[in-house]
Amino acid sequence: MTNMINKAQGLGLSLITKLAGSDVLDQLKLRKFLERSLYQGSKAGFRALSQTQKAFKPKQIPQQRLPQQKKNLFDLSLTEEQQMTSEAMSQFAQEVLLGLAHDADQTAQFPESLWQYVEDLGLNYYALPEALGGVAAEQNIVSNLLIIAEKLAEGDFSLTAGLLSTFSVINAITRWGSTEVQSMYLPCFAEDSDITATFAVQEATPAFNLYVLKTKASLENDQYFIDGEKTLVILGDLADVFLVSADFNGKPDVFVVQVGDTISIKNTPAMGLKATETATLKFSNTPALRLGATDFDYTAFLDLGNLMWCAMAVGTCEAVKAYCIKYANERTAFGEPISHRQSVAFMIADMAIEIDAMRMLILNAASLAEAGKPFHREAYLARILCAEKSMKIGTDGVQILGGHGFTKEHPVERWYRDLRATAILHSGLHA
């Protein structure tokens, strides 16, 4: 089977090369159409090859649970290790993500080159326990949110969401997974950096309620099956593994599903998050494993996902603020920079106040969570504030640039579109 696919891929690549040098395509104005068709066919072929080579073989391991942090103080300072991580993520965001963001948004494709950077950064190892070769010795929710997610999102919101999808799934499996699930997947994530994973939680229903799910799970002869439809799934057409929320015996639960023939995938382009190639997934009697052990908490699972979106919103809002300050100082009107106008200066000052407020609420919720204390109220407050203020900051960013803010010559319109996801998407990531 693999040899047949390899031959087909070779033929396809040969055809692409020959067609690329042909003038006929330009004469008939078919170049863009045919290149797009060949790209999709090539991607499908590589996906088929990938699926034949990726086999999840269980390796029996003790159940992993990262210990809670022991702390009595609400400490805002970073450790030396956290500071180094923060600087590395910030540098990567500015030097790599920022440069790739525009084209990724325009083409609505996640850059293939970014996966190599993920391996070089060792991003997934921050989520893997030390026993499996990772670096996580205890729950590091603050680091995951305010150091990794926020700093990366200063480069680009959409690309960060894609980069953190597998990282988030590893976090969720490490925190909640049963022995069976962890034995099946954690060693594979530790050994194979090419595995992509994501969440399928959102459903296309008005006023979507995370606790009333149309996707159903059933149990037959000790085997779980999933039926239903999920939408706005990040990297849905690229993922090998999905964490799927579904109703089981009248209660919401989460299941682990591998990509296969019982899942139909359709691209679902959205207003924002274009680089994540959002998709709609339809499950038809799809085999699954139940994620959680006896300590699984569905509400906490959702809260940790929402906090990740909030942290990314803070990072992108920082990017909006910095861009607006630079623009307002350079743009002159009536003989002086527009930053000298109180209406503009006050708008930027409000951004700074709101960003600090958002960050503080996230930090409060994250600190409680990693100490093992109740944090649902704090996470909910953080989500409400971030959903409202991030959209306001995105809107104000476009407003400060005036007509320029409405064009694609400046990144603020992209940030505005992406920030809308903070109020709309639930879970999809996990701190």
From TrEMBL:
GO terms for molecular function: acyl-CoA dehydrogenase activity; flavin adenine dinucleotide binding. It comes from the Bacteria. Gene3D superfamilies: Acyl-CoA dehydrogenase/oxidase, N-terminal domain, Butyryl-CoA Dehydrogenase, subunit A, domain 2, Butyryl-CoA Dehydrogenase, subunit A, domain 3. Residues 79-190 form the Acyl-CoA dehydrogenase/oxidase N-terminal domain. Its cofactor is FAD. It holds the Pfam family Acyl-CoA_dh_N. Keywords: FAD, Flavoprotein. Residues 301-425 form the Acyl-CoA dehydrogenase/oxidase C-terminal domain. The keyword Glycosyltransferase does not apply. Belongs to the acyl-CoA dehydrogenase family. This is Acyl-CoA dehydrogenase. The lineage of its organism: Bacteria, Pseudomonadati, Pseudomonadota, Gammaproteobacteria, Moraxellales.
